[in-house]
Amino acid sequence: MQETGLTSVTAAANERIREIPYNYTSFSDREIVIRLLGEKAWEILTELRNFRRTGRSSRMLYEVLGDIWVVNRNPYLQDDLLENRRRRVLLVDAMKHRLNEMEKRRDPTVPERDAKVAELLTLAHKAVEKFDADFIKTERLRGKARRLFKQFTSEDNIRFDGFARASHVTDATDWRVELPFVVLTPDSEKEIPALVRACIELGLVIIPRGSGTGYTGGAVPMSELSAVINTEKMDAISAVTLEHLPGVADDVPVIRTGAGAVTRRVTEAAALYDYVFSVDPASADACSVGGNIAENSGGKKAVLWGTAVDNLAQYRMVTPEGNWLEVTRINHNLGKIHKQEEVVWEVTLKDGQEKDPEKARVLHTETLRMPGASFRKKGLGKDVSNKYLGGLPGVQKEGTDGLITSATWILHKMPPCGRTVCLEFFGAAGLAGPAIVEITKLLDSHPQGCMLAGLEHLDDRYLHAVNYPVKSQRGEYPKMVLVGDIVGYDEKALDEVTEKVIRICTDRNGEGFIAKTETERFKFWHERSRTAAISAHTNAFKLNEDVVIPLDKIGEYTLVCERFNIECSIQNKLDMLEAVRSYLQGYISLGNPSMITGITKQELLAKTVPEALRKLDETKERWSFVLTHLDDAFKDVLSRLLTLGIAADSEAFKPYAGKKLFDAVYDRVLRISWKREIRSELDRIFGGDAFEKVRAQIDEIHNKVLRGRVFIALHMHAGDGNVHTNIPLNSDNYQMMKLGEKAVHLVMKTVKGLGGSVSGEHGIGLTKIEFLDPADLAPFYDYLDRVDPERHFNPGKLLKGLENAYTPSFNLLTSESLIMQQSELKEINDAVKNCLRCGKCKSRCSTHVPRASLLYSPRNKIIAVGLLTEAYLYESQTRRGLNPEHLSSFTDISDHCTLCMKCLQPCPVKINFGEVTVLLRNFLSRMNFTSKNPIKKAGLDFLSLTNPRGVEIARKAMIDIGFRAERKASDALKHLAQPHMKRPPNTTGKPKIREQIITLVNRRLPEPRMHKTLRSLLKLTDPTTVPIIRKKECRDAEAVFYFPGCGNERLFPEVGAAVLTMLYASGIQTVIPPKFLCCGYPQKGNGQAEFARQIVTNNRILFHRIANTLNYLDIKTVITSCGTCLKQLRDYHFEEIFPGCRILDIHDYLAEKGVSLVGEENTRYLFHNPCHTPFAGSTPLLTVNQLITAGDGTKVELTDRCCGESGTFAVSRPDIANQVRFRKEEDIRLRKSRLESDGFSGEVKILTACPACLQGLSRYNDATQTEAEFLVVEMARLQYGKNWLPDFLHDVSKDGIEHVLV
Q1: Which of 36, 488, 1065, 1302 would be 450's cystine partner, CB 3.0–4.6 Å?
Q2: pLDDT value at position 1?
Q3: In the chain, which stretches have pLDDT less than 70?
């Protein structure tokens, strides 16, 4: 065996690892004791175990440590004790009482033991006193900090709340050390210097933070007195301009960004001008460019144009003294920096007392010169292990020497022709390595002008994790896959070079596939974007090492990792054998006695268990032999293997005569199979119904032990040798975590031996510092001594490792199963436990709008949910009981969700936080902790009404009177509302009444176009009859069932009228429900689960009656005009109600019928796709453009983002809706300006297909000078003229409506 130090993960199962209560983390008792009491205390505790009698004293001490440990790591518990002195006194008194009880149990007759107990108690008393005193210090320091910080930034940018501190405690690693003391979210870079100086004055260390997507813990606070400065609001992105750069002859395309700009948004901004922003890490949808500079990140395009440092023209940062520092690249080579002989930077220090850096006084100027070769180790495409970089500030420093605020980047032109290749390799894993080398050598010379623009690798574990769709038809799963982009200037030359690449693959037992169109190329790359899903089978925790290997050494590196995996796999199977043996030698239950009638249990077991044990022993001997002889010559061990019962295949074994046993196992010619060698045999031995429970128990043992298996998974930026080496672990399994650490040490030892680098783009942070040579770091430490001698920025980072770091475990939370199962918390916990904290949900989340002070991405909310669940479980077990404020915090999280469900699509592990929010609201409802908002209650009651008279009265009160009052209030409070619209305040915590009122009326609601409901106008008020609307001559025409929905029927009856108009004019028979109905989703989304179920049940019963009565109509289509209704009605199973029918939105139905209309000459259109889109296809805009085009021929353009209405969301939390609308208004203005870029000055209408969105979009009419309209209403108007509604009502009244009794 190689030096991996493999041990059984289950071998130490009986060791005392977690006796301290409330420890839902990766820490063992040892690490908690050392953290809270010191190393000496653990030594004493270990010695005292030899004197243990009842163990009562140790349990009381562990109770005290458990209390301190859970509070220290949980901001919600800290806030509880800060705000409730009585509860804090109760807790501290309980701790002191336990320690006093320990004092009473001391035994002076055993002096040695008594002395140790006395020393331990002294340390424990000090810890309790510190714990108590820290609250007073915190309270005072918070007050002082708030007073100082608000001189330089808005007060709501100063965040002490539990949610902000929770969401900034970690990054994508989920390693945690300390909670931040405060989180600052400045509005602009102009605030940064003063905030830095204020932090220093308060004695707070500063943690710069972008989007929190780092994989090495660079933004993880290591001090309890730390201020995290979040730069996400600083997200400005300029237009692309051609500018003169110092020392460069021609003008260069550049783009300016704030440090908080999301990488993907910069890429999109550059693409508008047909340029490429080449810094493209896999986290581009979430990461910020400031973080890219601090880490020197790159991605697949790095093979062409390098990483962040290669593409910087200029950047600005704030120094540890609170001054401005501007760094400009001189003589830019516009390519990879290490290819330039000498790299020159001009560094300008400016006075930070001036807010505007452009006007600030210059204090000092310096020129830095360094060899280009110093930026990376020779032969490596990436390398970020050199932290010094010739004293270049900011870049690759991981936030230790200042805070980056903005940057100017050079852009590139991508060659016009492109191909994407997908290369699938079968058989031996080592075949892909030589292929990578040959492909890169081929394209490095740019044959016929063709270049490699990216080459990515996935091993088979990643392929399974991302559910890779195999393209080969050979019927086996690939061992590895390469996906690459090849670009050039000539199509013919590109095809020739691409075919050469395909031949390289096929010569190595592979198959190659070529994508030419943008759609096909996107599909090839799509799987690569979900690589984080590798850790979904654990509790979403993984060790992530992004090492760089020389290309010609990748095969050797892969071999070492596969060797580790094989050894771990065999050892894990041996652990399974041992666990099954222990079970079979203990008590065995056979379950139902009726299954063994006529024969005793002892007789059954006597016939089967000995045979099973023999089979286990035989297999253990065989597998152990393989594990211990992997390095032996295959020919020398073959006879022994055959004697041990290995499955023989003489033909397959022939090629291994001159090889090692490892080679046969590695190539899967000799397989170690649990299913074939053990499971099938035990199923045979324990066959029949009598042993069903035994078989189930064996399967359970297998699954439990398999969960502890450690493996290394690889994917890489193969073009530059950047290998992402991931080790998924369960943080509740202590031995698994330790074995994972050994795997990391093996990886790093191998990397160094092969001449590689320990990091290519993720940085060093906490996780890799121990693998850097101190001598290599000496120049960097000297640099820090010069620029930040007091270590104000990120102290301890790039100095200390993971000694104090822990990670929480959702799996350990389930240990409190009784409490969890009595509430929805277990279901909530299970729904979110796979979160990877990658932040990819941020780009789509409606409640993550940093510049609107809205940072409620699913990633942040899931971290908070974990800590709140922990607080709930902890306090449920204490005498103090549960603080209702924790339920308020749960409410805060559930309030900050529009249920748009858009987070599902980008999530690698498919967490739908909209569904989680529904579970949270159900939990709060069951706890009788729901919103008492009267407007929300009135709205839900209105939507639930079915009585026609009641609907008319309620509608008059709400729409005619209520909406009119809102519009008048909006006009009256316009000046008060403007500041909230321009800069929405933070909404964490309980909503303030004043803000609620102002934000409720800050945008005018629409005036009603119909003052009566459609049912009233058509006299459809009899709830016992079903109306059939049709022309007289269309009795045999196609029939559809139309479900109008509560929004269309009650709020905007013109929508239902337009649907009926289009169907009626098309000769369709339309059946509508006999009364006002709601689909049940508004109730479900608001936590009224039982009421929603009752609505659904009643509706389905009614629809079955309608179907039975009208079966002669043979209804095959159910039509809706609301995406939310469509979503809910899919669960009604209409295909069972109207046999064989489908459910479709009216617009899809009309498109299917070939309806296409042209708008008026002076009108252009935007389209707002509802969050719950009603369109069946993946691109609704195509359907919209099929249905309607502007009179001048311009296409309908999409306006993205949530409108902020979201059913009752806008009235229940108008303050949050105001934040959501901030970004929507920006998008409308942007899209409108593009529509008007050719000088168009006519009307712009925003079309939509959702009644709530129609109401929401109407609120933007005044601010954006647009008009909101429902798509089918606009179509009815264009088709049948301005009088379409009275004409329809007249025609229907004339032809008559058939009423059928149900």
Answers
A1: 488
A2: 45
A3: 1-16, 52-54, 429-430, 527-540, 591-598, 648, 815-818
Q: How many other CB atoms sit within 10 Å of the CB of residue 712?
A: 25
Instruction: Name residue 541's beta-bridge partners.
Output: 729
What's the CA gap between 1200 and 1231, in Å, rounded?
9
Distance CA 422, CA 523 (A): 10
Residue 547: strand pairing partners? 723
* pLDDT score for 815: 67
SS3 content of the chain, % helix, strand, coil (to 5): 50, 15, 35
From residue 1041, alpha-carbon distances to 74, 533, 1046, 1116, 1120 in Å are 53, 42, 16, 8, 9
- For residue 487, the cross-strand partners are 418, 451
Angstrom distances, CA of residue 160 to CA of 70, 156, 228, 415: 19, 10, 11, 50
Q: What distance in Å separates the CA atoms of residue 211 and residue 265, rounded to the nearest whole number?
A: 13
Q: How far apart are CA 1035 and CA 990, in angstroms?
A: 58
Instruction: State how far the alpha carbon of 524 is from the alpha carbons of 311, 471, 492, in Å.
Output: 27, 10, 22
The confidence score (pLDDT) of residue 819 equals: 73
At 295-350, the pLDDT tens digits run: 999 888 888 999 999 999 999 999 999 999 999 999 999 999 999 999 999 999 99
Contact 808, 870 (CB under 8 A): yes
DSSP H helices, 150-262, are 162-167, 192-202
Write the pLDDT tens digit of every residue in 1166-1216.
999 999 999 998 889 999 999 999 999 999 999 999 999 999 999 999 999
CB 186 within 8 A of CB 195: yes
Q: Is residue 1155 exposed (0-12), middle (13-18) or buried (19+ Cβ within 10 Å)?
A: middle
Whole-angstrom distance, CA of residue 734 vs CA of residue 1109:
64
Looking only at the bridges linking them, the beta strands covering 205-209 and 324-330 are: unpaired
For tokens 């079955």, name the residue.
Answer: 1104
Strands 1039-1043, 1025-1029: pairing is unpaired
Contact criterion met (CB below 8 Å) for 1250 and 1271: no
Distance CA 395, CA 384 (A): 10
Backbone angles phi, psi at 453, to 5 degrees: -105, 15
Residue 268 CB partners (closer than 8 Å, separation 6+):
none
DSSP-derived letter for residue 240 is: P
Look at residues 1160, 1119, 1108 and name the one whose alpha carbon lies nearest to residue 1143: 1119
Question: For 676, which DSSP code?
Answer: I
C-alpha–C-alpha distance, residues 479 and 428, integer Å: 7
Cβ(1027)–Cβ(1296) below 8 Å: no
Does residue 344 sit in helix, strand or coil? Answer: strand
| E strand residue ranges, 372-475 | 403-410, 417-425, 451-459
Residue type, 661: L
Asked if 720 and 303 touch (Cβ cutoff 8 Å), the reply is yes
How confident is the model at residue 157, as a pLDDT?
A: 97
Cβ neighbour number for residue 46 with a 10 Å cutoff:
11
Q: What is the largest CA-CA distance in the chain?
A: 108
Report the DSSP pairing between strands 324-330 and 312-318: antiparallel
pLDDT at 761: 85
4 HSE (CA, 13 A, CB side): 25
- Beta partners for residue 1243, in sequence order: 1163
**Which three-class secondary structure string do you get for 631-649?**
CCEHHHHHHHHHHCCCCCC
Written as six digits, the tokens of 80 are 């509880």
d(CA 1236, CA 276): 26
- Rounded to whole angstroms, how far apart are CA atoms 782 and 801? 19
Q: Which residues face 1016 on adjacent strands?
A: none
Q: What's the angle, vertex CA 16, arms to CA 14 and CA 22, rounded to 5? A: 120
